[in-house]
Specification:
single chain; alpha/beta; Rossmann fold; 7-stranded parallel beta sheet
């Protein structure tokens, strides 16, 4: 079973978008996929409920309980678990998720303020023994990026100075908002326009495959 933790201390960074699209991708690839929703807003759970009748349905599990109680609700035959961490949580509050994780994905918005707000979270991650010993990979995802702008280019430069790799950039698109409301993902569609955005995810998927 592969477990991926999607976490950020900054609200609005796109944590649920990344977690739900990853879960859909794995489910569409035929894997029995669980989406653990640890965020009190419950957005991931509502998204999973909207696709419950689809062949690529994703099982939503409540992860907001104390400590590791969420693990009891993950079926033994689950192949992939994606965890949507609570917004604003630091590493100490994510202990049960970090213990289970095979990789950590940290979405970051392309602005100086958002990047600075993420520094504290990354510093707490660095204190986690498995992260410190490079046994738990941490990857950054620049979300809602506009690669053609100076702001996004500067954001990439700032992020590249950190000890964690910038795995990919996800371009800004309202399509994510629309698809979330339908319980869908980028990977449920096959138009030319969507395929261009799907390409943004390939480096992340490859990184997770190697993690």
């Amino acid at each position: 079973m592969k477990t991926i933790l999607v976490a950020s201390s900054k609200g609005g960074a796109g944590k649920t978008t990344v977690a739900s699209n990853l879960a859909a991708k794995f489910a569409l690839d035929g894997h029995k996929t669980v989406l653990v929703d640890a965020d009190p807003q419950g957005s991931s759970t509502r998204w999973a409920q909207r696709r419950v009748e689809m062949p690529s349905a994703v099982l939503a599990v409540d992860g907001s309980g104390r400590k590791a109680s969420w693990r009891k609700h993950v079926p033994e035959d689950a192949e992939v678990v994606v965890i949507d961490a609570p917004a604003g949580a630091q590493a100490a509050e994510l202990e049960s998720f970090l213990d289970a994780a095979d990789a950590v994905v940290v979405p970051v918005m392309p602005s100086g303020l958002d990047i600075e707000a993420t520094v504290g979270f990354l510093n707490t991650l660095a204190e986690v023994p498995r992260v410190h010993k490079r046994k738990l990979p941490v990857g950054l995802v620049l979300n809602r990026s506009k690669p053609w702008t100076q702001t996004s280019r500067q954001a990439v430069e700032m992020l590249q100075s950190w000890p964690y790799p910038v795995v990919t950039q996800l371009r800004d698109s309202q399509a994510y908002v629309v698809m979330a409301g339908l319980g869908r993902s980028l990977f449920d569609y096959h138009s030319v326009a969507v395929r261009d955005h799907q390409g943004d995810w390939e480096p992340l998927l490859q990184w997770l495959d190697n993690s």
